[in-house]
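hey so i finally got around to running the thing on that chain from the lab meeting. sorry it took forever, my laptop kept dying and i had to restart like 3 times. anyway pasting the input first so we r on the same page abt which one it is
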Amino acid sequence: MTKTESHFRRSALILLATALSFFMPLSKAEAKVTLAKIFSDGAIFQKDKPVTVFGTALPGEVVTVELGAAKGQVVVGKESRFVLTLPMIPQSGTYDMKVTGQNTITVKNIRFGQVWLVAGEAVVDAALEDEAALEKKFGSGELADGNLAMPTDIMVFKPPVSLKRNPETIGEGQWVSAGSAEATRYSALGLLFARELHRHVREPIGIIQVSLPKVPIKSWISPTGLDTNGDTRSMAAKNALDEDFYNKLWNEYCQSSDPKKEPATGLTNMASGISNGMLAPLAPYPLKGVLFCQGESDLNFPVQYKTLFPVLLKDLRRLFAQEQLPFYYVQMGAQPSQTADKENMSAAASIRHTQYKARIAPKSYLIVSTDLCHEDMKSGSIYMSVEELAKRVANSTLATLYKVPKPYLYPIVEYVENEGEGIKVVFKNAGRGLMAKGEQPVKGFALAGHDHKFFDADAKIEGNTVFLECKYVKAPRYVRYGWGNNPILTIFSLDGLPAVPYTNDR
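ok and heres what got predicted. didnt touch it at all, straight out
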């Protein structure tokens, strides 16, 4: 037999085997009911919402779900995925859930409480044990004192890193008690936020942590979300990975023996990567709200960020099937000063400004963090007091969702107007008034005329108003406050919350 004949024979056999496999019925192992991993022992379900259960099974299979007195059935569709919503049941105590098709799955020790998605980059990804070490070195507080005690009815679910070209269904991960030693490797922000919340609501808290450093915003938005307009479609196309290159990068990452190795830049920059691999397997799990903290990886693309950030909010609400899902987001913190060529062109300030404007969306809440950042003079790296940030986030959610009186409104510029050779800046959300914090005189304000050339301004506080003057700007038109990579924030409400960075020149 010649080499050519042998080649054709092998090809024919492969084609025959492929055809036969197509017509053969799936085995029982392949046909079994599989739940998304978020439905595992110790799960927290959102209180006061119907339970939505989802997973995969053979097309046409009847899947039955039983939880307490509630029972429902669904016929699996042709794409092998099912979604079933159960009627409401009394939501106290502990439950087991039984899911039956050709096989039976029992999920044990389910409780109802408050479920939050905590997602983002480095600030979210930083582990409790690592933040405790930083607090001990740079700051003070409970973490610095070594007090890491956590209520055992706070549970955390963290899917492993999974950056996919297409949406996943099942995913991986398990629920872990915050009171366990293992939990100290989970998000400090998520755990401390949960603890603050728990102190007031006294219910089980479920934190779903989706985090990975150095991932731009386009990775967090689903293919459906990016397909909403021409601009976002173009951004996705520019960052598409062909299958061979994707497989090469993904295999290299998976085969690494280093547990702390981060995926290659090509993977982290992939459009919809995190959405496909880490968010899609969680949806539509009912949530109380979302805490999002991201932006550092978009410093080179502030214009794109302006387009994509509002898309992200709509996409998460669509993905989790909650049109009014409360969305709390942390305005990007300080960045190393030396990374800015000109503070006037600061990408960090531009991204903060985009986040500032996004607050007008319904049930969208901004949390300021820039004043909580501290720059290490030796290394130039930025350290954020995550313990204080967690309190701010918790206070915002407690005041807006749980009706617990807490200070959560950040002073924000209401309007500016000329006054003689200066400018009057009137703030709202100032409560009992404004105060200067830190070094005197008041710093952080700048004025510019029609030429947009900014100069530091002298500032004087009266009630909820700041009067500005600058000897270098005789006809001021534009105002900036807290502008730059690592800006100085000195204006606070009497409740101790910082004024939001502001500009009216863009």
